[in-house]
Amino acid sequence: MTEKKKPKANVSEKKKKAVAELISLIGKNRTMIVASIGGIPSRQFQKIKKAIKGKAQIKVLKKSLVNHALEKLPELEKLKEKIDKDFALLLSQEDPFVLAAELSQLKSFIKVKAGQILEKDIIIPVGTTDLMAGPAITDFSNAKIKVGIDQGKIAIKEAHIVKKGEKVSLEIATILEKLEIKPIAVGIKPIIAYDSKDKKVYANIKVDKEEALQFLALASSQATNLAIFSEFICKESISTLLSKANMQAQSLNSKLSDKTN
After folding, report:
1. How far is CA 15 from the centre of its chain?
2. Between 90 and 108, whose confidence is greater?
3. CA 172, 178, 181, 186 torsion: positive or negative?
């Protein structure tokens, strides 16, 4: 008994044309990034599109259409597994890491919603707020945040931390809104990229300039401290080592002078 062949999927001419156009667009650009656009309000999304206009095109397309295009481009096969819901394609002549770094600067901050699970800690700091003492004190009490009154305004007595991975309660969401704390950063998040110049696929392409600068500053400080501790002479350690040597010399002269006398 012969096995029946499955009928081929009927792809419309319109879809074929769209796939061909996407393949052509990919071929004309150096970089293609698959990025997440989940959770970005429409207004912020339009602001990002405007900010990178002329540097990159953002294409929000159907998953099936993009997959059809990638199937015809073997070098981009790895990108298929990263195509999920709420995604966009960015096409550009820029280096993928340069583009990713620019996207990291185009974040907006929005308020947190009750029931939302946090991706990072939120700290409600100690200090006097702009809220006048009154009914709002009850809201702080409901959120289990210790407050007092300072010159007629509500003052937070102890810092309150909502930890990463926790679900935000309605009470905490209410307090954050009253304090106008908008802790959630939203923006286009690069997931994976293809660089046609280098013929390479780069995963985990997220670049955060601020985080990188903080890391470099910490690393520089630690390296300088190590150089001073080990008495290794370099541009960063020389002034401290000379100062230290001068103090030791003065101390030694003082001791010798005491013995002489």
Report:
1. 35
2. 90
3. positive
